[in-house]
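Sequence in, structure out.
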Amino acid sequence: MSPSNVGVFAGLLLALIAVEGGFGWMLLALVFAAVGHLVGAHLEGRIDLAALLPGRGRG
């Protein structure tokens, strides 16, 4: 299982606590899953999240 898939799985697991609250919390679960996927893809080297941060890596 790739790190991005693990990230999505971890985000969904963390969001299960929030899902009990209704539709708004379900949207939050989707946000958690997306963030988990981004972190996993960054760890795989498929995307560079450092490029999104202002002032980082410019010297």
